[in-house]
Amino acid sequence: MELKRVVVTGLGALTPIGSTVSEYWNGLSNGVSGAAPITRFDASKFKTQFACEVKGYVPENYFDRKEARKMDLFTQFAMIVADEAVQDANLVEGSFNPDRVGVIWGSGIGGLRTFQEECVNFANGDGTPRFNPFFIPKMIADISAGQISIKYGFRGPNFVTVSACASATNAIIDSFNYIRLGMADVIVTGGSEAAVTEAGIGGFNALKALSERNDSPETASRPFDKDRDGFVLGEGAGALIVEEYEHAKARGAKIYAEIIGGGMSADAYHITAPHPEGLGALNVMKNVLRDANIRPEEVDYINVHGTSTPLGDISEAKAIETVFGDHAYNLNISSTKSMTGHLLGAAGAIEAIASILAMQNSLVPPTINHFTDDESFNPRLNFTFNKAQEREVRVALSNTFGFGGHNTSVLFRQFKD
Amino acid sequence: MSEIAEKVKAIIIDKLGVEESEVTPEASFTNDLGADSLDTVELIMEFEKEFNVSIPDDQAENIATVGQAISYLEEHAK
């Protein structure tokens, strides 16, 4: 069967460096850091006392109080960005068949704050189970996709992908696949995460995964810098409206980019450590290029996973050199996590948006916080350090990798009829 | 109005996000105050917690209005 073309027709973002797509792009292009001391709880006893939180978030600005109370923060974030994307795509009633519109969302963890609060309440009681009836439907990761479908009446394929920090990219790839196979016309995809809680920070601290640079939060996320010491936990969400090309054309939708390939692989190596030679990362980039049927030389920009951990950054850079050969040195590479922090299951969503906006604006957002070169990286690699670089981006690749050894890559191309 | 009635109304206003004027004795949680089945379960749990009582399921089924909640709790609250 002939595969259908798949395009992106709407975007939504709620990030630590901007609460709409345009604010997000402003932050990205100007190299703004979203890191600051934690406000969501008293972190004074934690090894890491900062994170990239969504700034000035007030649920009542978006929801009525009763509605907000029934949704964990990660679902609230999902609803907000889905709404921005649906409006942006001008998905007005009558322009689509709701049975052919799906929601495929990504979240690595789901309602961690809800889970933590309910368990603490139980532990503080006398053993009588007084769990709130909304506990389970607030906490489960898939409720985000369910809530979006309920709000808009989208009755097509509906689920959430869970692959830790690769979750949202898995959601985008699934959406791309269902649409190119003709199983849906439009899919609301993306991801959301809200894990800046005692359990989230404490858990990642125990793994020694987080930066502990408490005296300088804004310079803590420094991918590919010699003194990087772990990732900075972020929160927020990103949404993309993914649509079959003829469907988009028929309703006169604006088209941001075409999705031309999705790649997946597993490290099959360790639960949290990346494969030292970047085997999984290498395979996933080969897979995505093969799926899109393009040559490595056609790629202009890679938005890397690049979390600012000592090992992960090295294996990803090695894999890029292996897959791209000499072209690796012509590419622009950047880790926008240097600005946004690591949004876990939502990372793939906001980084896909960063890649698409780089194409739209012919500007590659930087890897900020570069102070000292690390001899582990070939100096010929262009990590777009500290300042955005002008460049025509025809094809952009976005990588995300998750604990468990899940690797995902997605390729976007400038749209041409 | 009794202290219990005041507390019951406050819980209903908080959990269901309704106006005080809507919380009349005859008002039904589901028909008048917009509660779904989960909201109703949550309300009963809040009553149990606030008034330190245990409301068995078969009795909880008979608490469908504001007035029924108040009279049940006036009778059973410790």
From TrEMBL, chain A:
Pfam family example for this protein? ketoacyl-synt
Write down the InterPro entries for this protein, in alphabetical order: 3-oxoacyl-ACP_synth-2, Beta-ketoacyl_synthase, Ketoacyl_synth_AS, Ketoacyl_synth_C, Ketoacyl_synth_N, PKS_Beta-ketoAc_synthase_dom, Thiolase-like
Task: Spell out where the chain crosses the membrane.
Answer: none
Highest taxon of the source?
Answer: Bacteria
Catalytic function, reaction form: (9Z)-hexadecenoyl-[ACP] + malonyl-[ACP] + H(+) = 3-oxo-(11Z)-octadecenoyl-[ACP] + holo-[ACP] + CO2; a fatty acyl-[ACP] + malonyl-[ACP] + H(+) = a 3-oxoacyl-[ACP] + holo-[ACP] + CO2
Record-level Gene Ontology MF annotations: 3-oxoacyl-[acyl-carrier-protein] synthase activity
Pathway listed: Lipid metabolism; fatty acid biosynthesis
Boundaries of each Ketosynthase family 3 (KS3) domain copy? Answer: 3-414
Task: Give the enzyme's EC designation.
Answer: 2.3.1.179
Signal peptide positions are none
Q: Which SMART domains match?
A: PKS_KS
Keyword list, A-Z: Acyltransferase, Fatty acid biosynthesis, Fatty acid metabolism, Lipid biosynthesis, Lipid metabolism, Transferase
Question: Family per UniProt?
Answer: Belongs to the thiolase-like superfamily. Beta-ketoacyl-ACP synthases family.
* Main function: Involved in the type II fatty acid elongation cycle. Catalyzes the elongation of a wide range of acyl-ACP by the addition of two carbons from malonyl-ACP to an acyl acceptor. Can efficiently catalyze the conversion of palmitoleoyl-ACP (cis-hexadec-9-enoyl-ACP) to cis-vaccenoyl-ACP (cis-octadec-11-enoyl-ACP), an essential step in the thermal regulation of fatty acid composition.
NCBIfam families noted in UniProt: fabF (TIGR03150), PRK07314.1 (NF005589)
Q: What is this protein called?
A: 3-oxoacyl-[acyl-carrier-protein] synthase 2
Q: Origin organism of this chain?
A: Pontibacter ruber
Report the gene name. fabF
Automatic annotation (TrEMBL), chain B:
> A Pfam family matched by this chain, by name?
PP-binding
Q: Which family does it belong to?
A: Belongs to the acyl carrier protein (ACP) family.
Which Gene3D superfamilies does its entry note? Answer: ACP-like
**HAMAP family assigned:** Acyl_carrier (MF_01217)
Q: Which PANTHER family match?
A: ACYL CARRIER PROTEIN, CARRIER DOMAIN-CONTAINING PROTEIN
Q: Biological process GO terms, please?
A: lipid A biosynthetic process
What protein name is recorded for this chain? Answer: Acyl carrier protein
Q: Name one GO cellular component term.
A: membrane
**Gene field:** acpP
Primary location? cytoplasm
Q: In which pathway does it act?
A: Lipid metabolism; fatty acid biosynthesis
GO terms for MF: acyl binding; acyl carrier activity; phosphopantetheine binding
Function field: Carrier of the growing fatty acid chain in fatty acid biosynthesis.
Q: Cellular location of this protein?
A: Cytoplasm
Which NCBIfam families does this one have? acyl_carrier, PRK00982.1-2, PRK00982.1-3, PRK00982.1-4, PRK00982.1-5
Q: Which domain of life is it from?
A: Bacteria
Question: InterPro entries per the record?
Answer: ACP, ACP-like_sf, PKS_PP-bd, PP-bd_ACP, Ppantetheine_attach_site
Which controlled-vocabulary keywords does the entry list? Cytoplasm, Fatty acid biosynthesis, Fatty acid metabolism, Lipid biosynthesis, Lipid metabolism, Phosphopantetheine, Phosphoprotein
